[in-house]
Every structure is written in structure tokens, then in C-alpha cells.
Amino acid sequence: MTTSPSVTPAAILERLSARLGCLPTDEKLALYLDQEDELRHLQACFHIPQMKDLPSIDPSLSTAEDKAIYLLGNSLGLQPKKVKAYLEEELDKWAKMGAFGHEVGRRPWITGDECIVGLMKDIVGADEKEIALMNGLTVNLHLLLLSFFKPTPTRYRILLEAKAFPSDHYAVESQLQLHGLDVQKSMLMIKPREGEETLRTEDILALIEKEGDSIAVILFSGVQFYTGQLFDMPRITKAGQAKGCFVGFDLAHAVGNVELRLHDWGVDFACWCSYKYLNSGAGGLAGAFIHEKHARTVKPALVGWFGHDLETRFKMENKLQLTPGVNGFRISNPPMLLVSALHASLEVFNQTTMSALRKKSILLTGYLEYLIKHYYGKDKVDRGRPSVNIITPSHPEERGCQLTLVFSIPMKSVFKELEKRGVVCDSREPSGIRLSPVPLYNSFHDVFKFIQILRSVMV
Ligand SMILES: Cc1ncc(COP(=O)(O)O)c(C=O)c1O
pLDDT by residue (tens digit) across 373-422? Predict the structure, then answer.
């Protein structure tokens, strides 16, 4: 499903450090990895926050370093430098020519979303016509569920993770209520086995096999927001569809992070936000996918004028000519400022490929994992000294760039101390600290510096 490393990241790191005549924990290895990194020039496309500008910094503790260690791309990606210029272009256009901006420029406002959608297709592995850029993520999830979830007396359930992101949980709950269904009976939630943190693919497939006849829609995340687990989307899709279910994914933590082939996998529908790994800014323009096989059969439940075919949209005849597929789901005219920010970001992605990003990502996250295990693996530390458990799957094919750490000491104090020293990451209840080295703008040396700071905090 993803770039399959024939050798593990740990083996690569050990081999390289032996060749360099150093230990894998030495700074020399990080510097070498950065020097060899073919994507390192892309970091210059982003504004990297400066230590001095972070509100969390304690100047008496932060190092002489200028740049913060930003490991929070899983929550909010960094700002591409071109965003400001692109926003200014549209603001200037508006100031200078008012409504004429609808039709002219690089992003005519009427078709702004359509101008940039081509840049998204390789990121999600879909045809342009299968993608719409619109709304926010949860709004898109609702619009898709309104069309794909058509319960019958025998097929009336939605399968999702027990620890799905709250917004997805509420979306499903409210969709069931909209149909007058009993939430307890209709919301089928799968949780990890007792004592385990992540779901086993075999358990997901077994549940689909057992309960599939009563399931109308399977909704999974691509990458789980808390654990960082990458689900086997092709197998879940195949198994669900074999039982007659529609299968959809929330790709908030997967898009721009792992390789996706939505079309080839035959996924029925998907949606994602663009402010995490796609770096479009908080509340950025979200995306939705509907497979072309449904283009003429699955129709929007709620229609607006931007779902009407462009050719005749402005005839104002009030006779709907619905654009086939997901583009018929667009309701309002596209928000020009959000289109501009996303445009700037997608252009950076299109300087490389998801497969090149993923290759770097596997090694970068593998390096972080290696160093954490080296210093804080349970078997490595003396009894009584703090340890760190990585709850994210250790196999690179079962995760994206995020690692979730659970500490043997109170997580909140570790988190606070990291923040004071210029590490930007986040903590999530109940006990995890999420770290996401992003291949577009994080370096191996960032990971090395993070570990030095962690060591100074965990003494
Ligand atoms: C997995 C997942 N789903 C849904 C959401 C909600 O997104 P939005 O506020 O853009 O609707 C988030 C936000 O972080 C998320 O991580």
C-alpha cells in the first residue's frame, strides 16, 4: 500500500552510522542524513517559527538556537512562504477591479477551486473529476453521509472506530438521529483488544464479515488521530464492499502524509481537511472525493447553485443541471482567500511526489523512533527511571509520520517543559504526546535536537 522499505529504518541508520564511523545517536549521523536528503530544499518554501516568537518559551531555558523544533504538522502545518503573495494578489485584484475579479487572473473567483484541483489529484490518487474542494471537513462528511447513508430496516448501521475523532463521532450520531434511528443499536464501534492500543486489521475484517449485512456505511479514518495508526484502506474497502456496504474515509491525518490511491482502491467516498499536512492555514478549504463509479447514481441531498453545471449556471433559469459526481455537491461559490492559501501549498507538493515524501518520512520517523527507543525504551532504562512507550505501530506501513508517546511520568509536566524549550508538539488526552516530523519541512537535525531537549527534560 505504501512505499515498502525492504530494510527497516533502524537497519539503515545502523549501517550508515557504521560507515561514518559514529554511533546512530551521534549528531554526525543527523547532519549526514540532512546533507543526503534530496528534499531538503523544500524547507525553504516554509516559514519556520522562531524560538523568540513562541509564547510558550522560557528564555532562561531555551538554547541559542533560532528556530523552534516544530513537530506539530499533524495539527497545523507551517505557512508556505507564497501564501502571503497569493492572498495579496486576490486582495489587490478585489481592490483594483472589484467584481471583475470573478473572471480574470490566475484564480478567477468563480472557478478558483477548479483552477487548483488538479494539484490535489496525485496527493489523493484520484481523477480531478472525483475531487471537490469545498467547505470544512465535518461539513463535507455530513454532505457525503446524507447521500451514502440510506438505511433500510435490515441495513441500518454505521461502523466506525470507538475512538474516532469527536467530530466524526458526533456527525455519525446526528446522522443516525436524523433518520430516527436508535443510536445505541445503529452505531457499531470497534475498539482495540483489551490491553492493546491499536486495532488489528484482522479484527476489523472479522467484524465486517460478521456484521456486514446490517452495515450501510463503514467510516474509518485513514490515519488515526491519537495513535497515528495507518489503516489498511484497500483491504477495509474490499471487505466492506464485498458485504454490500459503502466504505468511506476521513483522511484528515492521512492526506499529504501517506500515499493514497482512492480511485484504484475503489473507495466510495472520502473527505479531508487541508490545514494539517496540506499546510493551508487554520480552517482551510477542505476536500471531498466520490468515486467515478457513483458519478451518475449518488446525488447530493442538499443542492446549491455551484452544483449546477457551469455552462448554464448563470442563465438563472432555476432548472437544475446537476454536475455529475462530487462536483455536484458544491453548494456555494468558492472562498477566494482559502483557495489562494491552498494553491500556494499544493504548489510545494507538486515540486515533488508523495512517494519521495513518504520515502523520507519513513526514515525521518524511523530515526525519531530509534532515538526514543535507544534512550527511553522500557528495556533500556533502569528500574525507577522514566520510560517512554510509543503506542503508534512500529511497522512503517502501519503508520504515517506521527508517533504518539506515552510517558511513565506525568505527561503534562514533560509537555510543559518541552514547550518552554521551543519544542512545538501537542498533548492529547488521556496520556499521549504527539510528534510529527514532516518530510516537507523537518530535518533529521530537528529530530536530533528534539531528543537532546527531551533528555534535558527527563533527567
Ligand atoms: C480526524 C479528524 N476529523 C475531523 C476533524 C474536524 O475537522 P473540521 O473542524 O475541519 O471539521 C479533525 C480536526 O482536527 C480531525 O482530526
Answer: 999 987 665 667 788 999 999 999 999 999 999 998 888 889 999 999 99
- Cα dihedral 85, 91, 96, 102 sign: positive
Atom of ligand 1 lying closest to residue 164 CA: 1
What's the gap in Å between 426 CA and the centre of ligand 1?
15
Q: 92 CA distance to ligand 1 centroid (A)?
A: 32
- Is 370 exposed, middle or buried, given 0-12, 13-18 or 19+ CB atoms closer than 10 A? buried
3-state secondary structure of 239: helix
Across 35-48, b (16+ Cβ under 10 Å) vs e yields eebebbebbebbeb
**Using CA of residue 35, residue 438, residue 453, residue 373, what is the dihedral sign?**
negative
Dist. CA 76–CA 426, nearest whole Å: 11
For domain 9-67+353-458, give the CATH superfamily: Aspartate Aminotransferase, domain 1 (3.90.1150.10)
The C-alpha cell 523512533 sits at 369
Those residues whose C-beta lies under 8 Å from the C-beta of residue 97, and which sit 6 or more positions away, are 104
Q: Please identify, in words, the CATH class of the domain defined by 84-350.
A: alpha beta
Q: Domain extents for the chain?
A: 9-67+353-458, 84-350
Name the residue at shortest CA distance from atom 10 of ligand 1: 137
Q: Using CA of residue 408, residue 403, residue 8, residue 360, what is the dihedral sign?
A: negative
Beta bridge partners of 279: none
Burial 238-277, CB ≥16 within 10 A → b, else e: ebbbebebbbbbbbbbbbbbbbbebbebebbbbbbbbbbb
* Amino acid identity at 442: N
pLDDT at position 385, please? 77
